[in-house]
Amino acid sequence: MPRMIIISGCSGGGKSTILAELKSRGFSTIEEPGRRIVAEELASGGTALPWVDLEAFARRAIDMALKDMAAAQHLPDPVFFDRSAIDAASALTAITGDKRFLQAMKDQHRYHRRVFMAPPWPEIYVTDPERRHGISEAIAEYDRLQRDYSALDYEVIQLPKLAVSHRVRFLLNEIEQVAEDLPD
């Protein structure tokens, strides 16, 4: 199984920028399911959008993220994910109160034990056609994700608020320190 490493955290916290830098350095990366879903739904006139039908959006994000995990089996190690099935399951649990999806993430769908969280960073936060919620909602999401990843026995590591090259160096150093713990 590839070393599947999650970069999660606050919307607008710089996750996609970090992934773009990792990709430019030759690492395998998986783009955020939510952004891909929003782009598809906007192009097709669909309603599985977080501001229209959040439950349908979260369910679709879980499905897409699980397919991403399967596809990652064939990519060179390590594979970096911009969010994960856990992010989507956390959102679905928040909406419905049904914890089965999060439990499945703990029991059946495991990523590397260290998860890197982009903290709220109001100075760089912007909305766009695919991110319509404000910073307060993004912070609430970050708090929920921190709680849920910890509850699923992941070691949550906060990324520093530094230039992207420094954030990437921090992340790679953290991974290198635990290389012996990464799955084969």
General description of the model:
Residues 5-167 form the NadR/Ttd14 AAA domain. Pfam families: AAA_28. It comes from Rhizobium oryzicola. With 184 residues, the protein is an alpha/beta fold. It has one domain: P-loop containing nucleotide triphosphate hydrolases (Rossmann fold, 3-Layer(aba) Sandwich), CATH 3.40.50. Helix content is 50%, strand content 12%. The protein contains seven helices and five strands, in the order E-H-E-H-H-E-H-H-E-H-E-H. The protein has a five-stranded parallel beta sheet with strand order 2-3-1-4-5, sandwiched between helices. Helix 6 (135-151) links the parallel strand 4 and strand 5 (155-158). Helix 1 crosses helix 7 (164-177) and helix 2 (33-44) packs across helix 3. The longest helix is centred in the middle third of the chain and has 19 residues, at 54-72. The protein is globular and about 40 Å long. Mean pLDDT is 86; it is low at 180-184.
